[in-house]
Design a protein that fits this description.
Two copies of one chain form a homodimer. Chain A has 374 residues and is of the alpha/beta class. Chain A contains eleven helices and 16 strands. At the A-B interface, β14, β15, β16 and α11 of A face β14, β15, β16 and α11 of B. β14 of chain A pairs parallel with β16 of chain B, so a sheet runs across the interface.
Chain lengths: 374, 374
């Protein structure tokens, strides 16, 4: 079903704020720009992970010209710095934040001008994947499904009743276009705990990993049906682009587009879509608590600097992001389920349970006009 | 009963290690040398508090020549630095740690050579007193009691069932030598929680604040009765002193003296002693948790640097003892009953409940040979 000539592009969504990773993440350096799990910044890890698929659907990939990054003006320079291989034209700058639907639509529109049947892979920039080979296998099948004209997503078989993720309800396995794809029935919003346990027990729901695969023409058609105002805006941008004035048009038109996510605006309204289950050690790095889950830990569950003294303490994470070279001894006595993060200008103490409330710190700092720490 | 000519001396015990205040306290800078409550180091605060009483029993005081500090060789220089008004001869250096009985006995022996009826006030160097005027009133009465030949201590009316303090059981109020003195019946070791609650409810027990008052001749007689080996050692030091060789004798004899506290070795064995109740906001600064109790706190019980962001957090203490001038923003999210202490080379996280286990950190560091942090 897949043409070997199908062009495959990635669009990495990298405009998020990620305030829940304060004080590591800042307004001009959100979490996707941080090496939160060691190694490269999450955004660069994401690009490295998908790059071999960027090419054609047969696997001839690793084409940097087929990687697009969607971000905002504030983060553009930092994006160029951590992805020096990327052409400037491949960085799509939203003039104002309008959710994911307008920026995905814009990328699809650009692509459609060159090749309407090109497949676009839309990926978040801040997720963790443990098994990169299985990830690529799964993505390759999702691309094949998309290339056949089916809007496709990847669903993660849930291992716990997570309340921080959305879910995808699936029906029977589909006969076509690729083996192992299931008919998607609906998107389920982040559930409460009881509902999450039902979803986990029922065996018909997968985690929504926020990864979408479609041909440019297919998503544009869906946008025209479900978000006609966005469709019209994209048409206007197309006309301006034909006249060599795309940048100016985007500047003028973007603020008028409906502010909505692709999930709410399009995906949830589709009559049918495909879900490919993908079991490749996926985690959304949503909070310091999820970073702790992925971090290497001692036998008592502590992730802390080498040489840490531990007395009756368990399940803590101590993150030292100070730039000075002075080594300090860390001692944990009796504390548990804490995250401690220090940077040169901030010290955060948070329970793992309340890790999502770290965003309130940023709100507080802004409210009191202390923007230099945000 | 008190002669106006009675000479009054203070002996401040300042040789302790105080490992429970790590990382602020270090082997060469234990807690009595730290300004743990702001202001001066605790030892200097202690001297300033008692100095007006050092003179004669009538209140003509503030004589630095009547202040003696007992410490060890390692801490002698630091003692001189924080108490520059003190003559070197007034710093008594124990060559080896032998508990409080030998060093108190030695101080009493020195005093007795000049004036056997001089009153010696023995005080810890690391306690907190909120109401200094009432403290001095109480001490003045204790001195009067001691000057009359009664070994006297101060008992603190308990306000909670403390398991970290020893207790003094008292009998009826005594007719003499001073009003408001009670007959001491016995010393009670640190109780468990249930026993502490009994002691508190019974109304016959006071906290032992470790402050003792006696004439030099009286304590020396008690030592001769209850610790004859110490009495003989002190006699030998006296003989050497008469020959101008006290320092050398102390060096030789101290290691042979019984290693025992004045409480266990003498006070608990006395047939009778007086207890003056003293309600002057006393606390033993035993752990970071007690430092938190005394620290100024916000409405939610947090003691933390100015400007701290607090979100659902309560009853924490954050102590920043770094010497660099960089101000950092601190954020507390959801955490409670924690103490966090940072120095240039260490970071401690401890629950208030396990604050006493901080000494195990020091033990650990020593065990692994990391003495530079101890």
């Amino acid at each position: 079903v897949t043409s070997h000539a199908t062009a495959v592009y990635a669009l990495i969504l990298a405009g998020g704020a990620g305030t829940r990773f304060w004080p590591a993440s800042r307004a001009d350096r959100p979490k996707q720009f941080l090496p939160l799990l060691g190694g490269d910044p999450l955004l660069r890890e994401t690009v490295k992970r998908i790059l071999p698929i960027c090419g054609d659907a047969a696997g001839a990939g690793a084409r940097w010209d087929r990687v697009m990054i969607s971000t905002n003006r504030r983060l553009a320079e930092r994006t160029r710095v951590i992805l020096p291989e990327l052409a400037t034209a491949n960085i799509l700058i939203e003039p104002v934040p309008r959710g994911t639907a307008p920026c995905i639509g814009w990328a699809a529109a650009q692509l459609a001008r060159r090749d309407p049947e090109a497949v676009l892979m839309v990926l978040p920039s801040d997720h963790h994947v443990a098994d990169v080979e299985r990830f690529r296998e799964t993505v390759t099948r999702a691309v094949a499904s998309a290339a056949a004209g089916v809007i496709t997503t990847i669903g993660i078989p849930p291992t716990s009743p997570e309340t921080g993720y959305g879910y995808l309800e699936i029906d029977a396995e589909m006969a076509a276009p690729v083996p192992g794809a299931f008919a998607g029935l609906r998107f389920v919003e982040k559930p409460d705990r009881a509902r999450a346990e039902e979803l986990l027990a029922g065996g018909r729901h997968l985690w929504n990993a926020g990864m979408f695969f479609f041909r440019a023409c297919d998503i544009l058609e869906a946008i025209r049906v479900h978000l006609p105002a966005l469709g019209e805006g994209l048409d206007a941008i197309d006309r301006a682009a034909a006249a060599g004035a795309e940048e100016e048009a985007v500047e003028r038109i973007f603020p008028t587009l409906p502010a909505v996510s692709i999930d709410c605006g399009v995906m949830e309204r589709l009559a049918g879509f495909a879900v490919i289950p993908g079991d490749f050690g996926w985690r959304d790095l949503g909070t310091w608590s999820s970073a702790w889950e992925l971090a290497p830990k001692d036998a008592l569950g502590n992730s802390s600097p080498k040489g840490t003294i531990v007395i009756g303490a368990h399940d803590n994470e101590v993150v030292d992001l100070r730039t000075g070279g002075d080594r300090r001894i860390v001692a944990l006595v009796g504390v548990h389920d804490l995250v401690v993060v220090e940077t040169d200008d901030a010290l955060l103490l948070v329970t793992r349970e309340q890790a999502q409330d770290v965003r309130d710190v940023v709100a507080c700092l802004k409210a009191q006009g202390d923007e230099r720490f945000t």
